[in-house]
Amino acid sequence: MSLSSEIPLLRPDTPLLDAVNSPEDLRQLDPEDLSLIAQQIREYLLYCVGQTGGHFGAGLGVVELTIALHYVYNTPNDRLVWDVGHQTYPHKILTGRREQMLTMRQYQGLSGFPKRSESDYDTFGVGHSSTSISAALGMAIGSEMSSGINNDQDSQARKHVAIIGDGSMTAGMAFEALNHSAHTGNDLLVILNDNNMSISPNVGGLATYFSKIWASKSYNALRENSKRVLTKLPRAWEMARRTEEHMKGLVSPGTLFEEMGFNYVGPIDGHDLPELINYFEKLKAIKGPKLLHIITRKGKGFSPAEADPVGYHALNKIEPKVNNAPTVKAVTTAKKYQDVFGQWLCDMATASEKLVGITPAMCEGSGMVAFSEQFPERYYDVAIAEQHAVTLAAGIACEGQKPVVAIYSTFLQRGYDQLVHDVALQNLDVTFGIDRAGIVGEDGPTHAGSFDLSYLRCIPNMIIAAPSDENECYQLLSSAYHHVGPAAVRYPRGKGIGTSISSVASIANNDDFTVGKARKISEGSNVAILNFGTLLPFAIEAAATLKATVYDMRWAKPLDHEAIKQLAQSHRLLVTLEENAIAGGAGSGVCEYIAQQGLPTAVLPMGLPDTFIDHGKREKILEGIGLSAEGIIGAIEKRLAALG
Fold first, then answer.
1. Of these residues, 97, 98, 248, 298, which one is catalytic?
2. Is 386 tagged catalytic?
3. pTM of the prediction?
4. Sequence-distant contacts of 528-531: CB under 8 A, at least 24 apart
């Protein structure tokens, strides 16, 4: 297969692919045509992602796998459950959404992940990792029940396949599901897509040879018949079982899965279409839990992505050149918040030898690359294991060190029990840098940090900062770090507003950023806007029109009660503003305090509505939910009119 080295700006010619509007069309093709389909999918995928931006390295790596699955299995009646979903662009192309791909991740367009409401072929909505085996097992159990209760022929014939990557397999949830699958014994195929390992010539050939044997009907018939006979002779059965396991262990990493009760097959070349089809046909005939281990290459077919799979995990939209001139980008001093965190982390580690940095597999995304290089002995990437990351930090804090956990808001949800039970309950000194708080734009609701203020605010011992710009983020990280006890600083995805950063607070806590103290931005009358986080520019713009007071609250917990009481006594209406769910958020905290104090002031909480917000440009989403300056002004004027 020829390698591409550039993203095409014009739609490639894909006549064979254009005739495939469903997997049923794909199954009508001759097997020898499938390699051409694979080539055309890659070309079209590169073109689409160049137009829209999005994840594509993982998708390029599973083109052959996707084709083989839809070619062999009777989808959508047979259930394919993808893990995470970064790799499902080829799946979408083959399942009737080819011409919609240019709307990918855009407002009211296709989701960048599988989504049940989008297609019958998307059997399970995903975005977080390590859920596929649990979901597929649940479907297998549910289908078995349906076939028994309703005598449903489709359910009786249905196959269930979970496709999971080697990264996602590191999470505890995946192993919990493997363990339960072996216990239930349901007919389930798990495909381990290993794209971080190559097959060496000497081992690979032998492994492939044995894989063919292990997947064959004759071998499995012999295996089951021998089991029935030898189990009556315990010593003979134990010797035979161990011989088989040791044989597999010599040429494959599958002993662990065999011990867990799975029939392990592999590893095989995940880019060999005829071989994949051959294995799937054989594995369909084998009952019970099975695991097929395939080796793929992330970014397959696009040479830059093959050379740098991390850097080409996702791609921004390619802007075409105008009149052969390079695109001129506006010069900005704004930094990404993740880079502000990364700078702070290195500065603080220089000043504090007790600092330890922890991330659950998000080194690049959390801005920790420089820290990992400068302080490798104090850097821990625990893989996709958010629960472990939190409790690991708790254990480190028990010994007097100062762990900092860098984690996305939406991923901290997975470590919530550990946050409550292992950190907060014991009042341990752990600082959380919570990235991607609020609207994340094109990645949509699976990655949006919509709830962290709500789920953190109710936890005793926890303090929570919501900085409004880059400098505030840097300084409040320092205040949180110097606080003795659990502390969190939440900040959004993307760039700030260009505020310069003073690094004074990296060495000693800055009195100007005392925990629980707000800052006054402007003085007005009648209306006071209490801002939590990076919506401050909109608050300031709205206040200029309304001649309102603006306070940057900085802390969602503890609240600045003195400031709130003073504002409540001197203003007719308090407006709370946050990029978090209104339910249980910082505004709820203000309302609780106003009620407890018996203050008569009206309060208008503004934030994210009680719904999962779909993907699209952040600015457009904020406008749509009324959190632009115009929306804020309109909501305040409406409330003032209602007050009379």
1. 298
2. yes
3. 0.76
4. 528/567, 528/570, 528/571, 528/573, 528/574, 528/575, 529/575, 529/577, 529/632, 530/564, 530/567, 530/574, 530/575, 530/576, 530/577, 530/587, 530/590, 531/468, 531/577, 531/578
